[in-house]
Automatic annotation (TrEMBL):
Residue ranges of domain Enoyl reductase (ER) in the record: 5-217
Name of protein: NADPH:quinone reductase-like Zn-dependent oxidoreductase
Transmembrane segments: none
SUPFAM superfamilies documented for this protein: NAD(P)-binding Rossmann-fold domains
Species this protein is from: Tamaricihabitans halophyticus
One function term, GO molecular function aspect: oxidoreductase activity
InterPro entries: ER (IPR020843), NAD(P)-bd_dom_sf (IPR036291), YIM1/Zinc_Alcohol_DH_Fams (IPR050700)
Taxonomic lineage from the root: Bacteria, Bacillati, Actinomycetota, Actinomycetes, Pseudonocardiales
Pfam families linked: ADH_zinc_N_2 (PF13602)
Amino acid sequence: MDTSGAAADYVLAPANALAVAPRTVELADAAALPVGGLTAWQALFDHAELRAGQTVLINGAGGAVGGFAVQLAHQQGAHVTAVASERHAERLRADGADKVVGHLDHQASALTVAGQPFDVVLNLVRTSEADTAALAELVRDGGVLLSTTTAPPENPGRDIRTASVFLLSKADQLAELVTRVDRGELRINVAARRPLTELAAIHDAAVAGDLAGKTVLTPA
Ligand SMILES: NC(=O)c1ccc[n+]([C@@H]2O[C@H](COP(=O)([O-])OP(=O)(O)OC[C@H]3O[C@@H](n4cnc5c(N)ncnc54)[C@H](OP(=O)(O)O)[C@@H]3O)[C@@H](O)[C@H]2O)c1
């Protein structure tokens, strides 16, 4: 991920990072699966070991990782609360969110969300250190707080386990995601499809915080 060349026509990649692309979606759209899908999978299953019947709060559910996390957690039999803006609510409910709530008010001294405490809280928003720590208030004793962005506190007490999630390229997990896509169980949500010639402008928009979800780039 820290090597240049992501928009090259050809790249060398280790075979153990690759899986056959899904056959039921446009090949270009398949590009929207690996990073978001694997991050959600590894957070929920490798880190949190999410089980059926558990409750999970996904903060930032409107984005690319969140879209997969909602679907995968629902398929696992968990009760899913998604934190996202209203424009994503209908899609997230259709994808398995039991409840969709608006953005959390981090100004408050203590966070409250209906349904708390949760077995698992997954943070996908670029929160401040203090706001990330405050999310621990939403976790039950002995539960799990994970973040793909700002590192959570190492030991917030009450036997809460915390971890930063860093995506690993695992071909077996990617193959399972592809299988679910081809079975019609996992939806790849593509926010926009743009020509590669617009790459610089797209990066500018990303840096400005104006992009959410996956933008698929296609050669002219
Ligand atoms: N560590 C890793 O290996 C790894 C891997 C993948 C991604 N990431 C990081 O994880 C984060 C999420 O990735 P992504 O691809 O899903 O990004 P994304 O598609 O840009 O989604 C982020 C979402 O957060 C929502 N959001 C923004 N402020 C919010 C707030 N205060 N409360 C609730 N939601 C809010 C936005 O949607 P709305 O405001 O419209 O609801 C947006 O859809 C990014 O920071 C990314 O860099 C890390």
